[in-house]
Write a structure and sequence with these properties.
It contains six helices and six strands; from the N terminus they run αββββαααββαα. The longest helix is centred in the C-terminal third of the chain and has 33 residues, at 195-227. Helices cover 50% and strands 12% of the residues. The protein has a domain at 5-149: Roll (Ubiquitin Conjugating Enzyme), CATH 3.10.110. The N and C termini lie far apart (77 Å). Residues 166-228 are annotated as: Disordered. The active site is at 89 (glycyl thioester intermediate).
Length: 228
């Protein structure tokens, strides 16, 4: 099943709007298939999920935006409103859906779900029960499973406005500049070598090639004599 033409236009427009005005802690990862929108969410600070980065996907029905997308987490997470298979249960994707809500609202709601779980509509009964009866145990287990299954890569900054924090980009650029400087320095060193040194290097290379050719010729001659 594929999106109709109207749905495709809506999805593309809403993605462009988010790209122009990104959502904190959220990174979109569009695919060529407009029936799906892949995304990643950094666990909100102050929650058991804050050390994690959770991958998810929104799947659009043919008649979107008249019907809501279906949401799934592809990364395992211990959460009352997320099933063991990753299904996300939130009213915005069900009975409260309205065609004018859009993708921004959906992604914001999913992020907020990590801040304020709703145990009353739990898909994971154990998580819902612990949240209500023993929050300390719930918090410890959620944090532990986050570290096991969805720990943010070492050195990776949080998504800021939908993009990885600028410091990573700066580090990459600095590394490239440093490499370029090293290369330039090496090139300058070669250029500064005296002509005699350069010629000596060239002469050595030529001599090695000549010796190599002479050896090949001698080997061929030996082979010919053996055949005789």
């Amino acid at each position: 099943m594929t999106l109709n033409a109207h749905g495709m236009r809506v999805v593309m427009r809403q993605m462009q709007e988010i790209d122009a005005n990104p959502i904190a802690d959220v990174h979109m990862a569009p695919t060529e298939d407009l029936r799906e929108l892949h995304f990643e969410i950094d666990g909100p600070e102050g929650t058991p999920y804050e050390a994690g980065r959770f991958a998810g996907v929104l799947v659009f029905e043919e008649s979107y935006p008249d019907v809501p997308p279906k949401g799934y987490f592809r990364t395992r997470i211990f959460h009352p409103n997320v099933s063991e298979k990753g299904d996300i249960c939130v009213n915005a994707l069900k009975k409260d859906w309205k065609p004018d809500m859009g993708l921004r609202h959906v992604l914001q709601v999913i992020r907020c779900l990590l801040v304020e779980p709703n145990p009353e509509s739990a898909l994971n009964e154990e998580a819902g029960r612990l949240l209500l009866e023993d929050y300390v145990t719930f918090e410890k287990k959620a944090a532990m499973l986050t570290r096991i299954h969805s720990l943010r890569p070492a050195g990776a900054s949080r998504f800021v406005g939908g993009e990885v924090a600028k410091e990573e980009e700066a580090n990459t650029e600095n590394g490239a500049v440093s490499q370029a400087a090293t290369t330039a320095s090496s090139g300058a060193g070669l250029r500064n070598m005296g002509d005699s040194n350069v010629n000596a290097v060239a002469s050595t290379a030529v001599k090695k090639e000549e010796d190599k050719n002479k050896k090949k010729a001698a080997d061929k001659k030996k082979s010919a004599l053996k055949r005789i």
